[in-house]
């Protein structure tokens, strides 16, 4: 027997540049902090929260999702972050060697997760997919993945386009996995549609809008049959008691903290987009909590390194269709974005002087 298996050997560790930076705008987390009700629950932790096993399948979180969106509890599955839900869904829906199709560029973990589960990843360029959603079905895939809003672009695929895709899939086609990690910033969700459609799983997270990335807690909503199979795939005890109960409180958002921070984020997103447009950097229109814009020098890696040397971290992306090498910046409180703009001007102003 060969260890590791041949199709697994080519995988590498996920390893973005995570060196400390004075202002970290690279990972799309909530830069306003952590949901206060969740933080209070963690501060009041007791012995049983740590010494005993949690609920088998995160019942408290499942109930909170049910109440928040008005969906049946049996339609909810959970995991240690939305990545865990995606991984479990990929494993449950497709045998090794099957295809997973997705519109790209998109979330960078889709290919690794496909590889971990022995799936063949097939990417369809976003323009082609948007022109005709049947392009996502040409390879007879077991799974179709759609990120909405997309990462790294922030674009929101039209609801009518999704309905066309669902109609093509029908009741016997591939499982459509709709990743809504950033949907809170878009003001649109298909969570309530998921229980009605036999081939749809909507996946969401508390890592972004709720400020709980460190807890690693996510969930999915689907028909009862799909939710059950994903639960079986991921196994028991994946969500810790503290993570599940803190996330449940945050999700219900009884005091409106998340809603207020999202409103401020959306406002700042518009201000930052205007600022980048004035600098001629062609930011894409985004419905998420980040913006993607053209790398000033034409090299994303070099520009990200130059900004990091001035204390500001952003995420580089190479060869983005229609934009070229690009940088992604997380939207946060305006003083942090002012610091980013100052570093941007200082860095590339100095570069222009040096090349003059």
Distance separating the two termini: 61 Å
Order of helices and strands: HEHHHEHEHEHEHEEEHHHEHEEEH
C-alpha Rg (nearest Å): 21 Å
The average pLDDT score comes to 95
**Total of helices:** 13
CATH A-level architecture of the largest domain: 3-Layer(aba) Sandwich
Report low-confidence residues grouped into runs of 5 or more. 352-356
* β-strand number: 12
Give helix % range.
25-40%
In CATH's first tier, which class of the largest domain applies? Answer: Alpha Beta
CATH superfamily of the largest domain: Type I PLP-dependent aspartate aminotransferase-like (Major domain)
Assign an overall shape. Answer: globular
Notable traits:
17% strand, 2 domains, alpha/beta, 356 residues, Aspartate Aminotransferase, domain 1, Aspartate Aminotransferase, domain 2, seven-stranded mixed β-sheet
């Amino acid at each position: 027997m060969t260890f590791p298996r041949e199709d697994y050997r080519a995988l590498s560790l996920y390893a973005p540049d995570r060196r400390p930076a004075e202002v970290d705008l690279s990972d799309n987390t909530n830069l306003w902090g952590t949901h206060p009700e969740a933080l209070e629950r963690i501060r009041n932790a007791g012995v049983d929260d740590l010494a005993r096993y949690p609920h088998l399948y995160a019942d408290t979180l499942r109930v909170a999702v049910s109440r928040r969106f008005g969906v049946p509890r049996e339609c909810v599955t959970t995991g240690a972050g939305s990545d865990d839900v995606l991984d479990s869904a990929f494993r449950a829906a497709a045998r090794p060697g099957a295809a997973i199709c997705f519109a790209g560029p998109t979330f960078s973990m889709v290919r690794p997760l496909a590889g971990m589960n022995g799936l063949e990843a097939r990417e369809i360029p976003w323009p082609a997919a948007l022109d005709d959603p049947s392009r996502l079905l040409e390879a007879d895939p077991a799974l179709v993945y759609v990120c909405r809003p997309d990462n790294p672009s922030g674009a929101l695929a039209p609801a009518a386009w999704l309905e066309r895709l669902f109609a093509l899939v029908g009741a016997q086609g591939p499982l459509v996995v709709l990743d809504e990690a950033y949907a809170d910033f878009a003001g649109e969700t298909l969570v309530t549609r998921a229980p009605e459609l036999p081939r749809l799983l909507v996946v969401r997270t508390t890592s972004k809008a709720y400020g709980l990335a460190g807890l690693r807690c996510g969930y999915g909503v689907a028909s009862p049959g799909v939710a059950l199979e994903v639960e079986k795939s991921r196994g028991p005890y994946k969500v810790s008691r503290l993570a599940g109960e803190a996330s449940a409180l945050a999700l219900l958002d009884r005091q409106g903290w998340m809603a207020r921070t999202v409103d401020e984020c959306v406002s700042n997103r518009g201000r930052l987009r205007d600022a980048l447009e004035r600098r001629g950097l062609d930011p894409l229109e985004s419905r998420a909590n980040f913006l993607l814009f053209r790398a000033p020098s034409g090299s994303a890696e070099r520009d990200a390194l130059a900004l990091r040397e001035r204390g500001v971290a952003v995420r580089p992306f190479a060869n983005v269709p229609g934009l070229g090498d690009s940088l992604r910046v997380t939207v946060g409180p305006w003083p942090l974005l002012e610091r980013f703009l100052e570093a941007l001007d200082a860095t590339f102003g100095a570069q222009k002087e040096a090349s003059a």
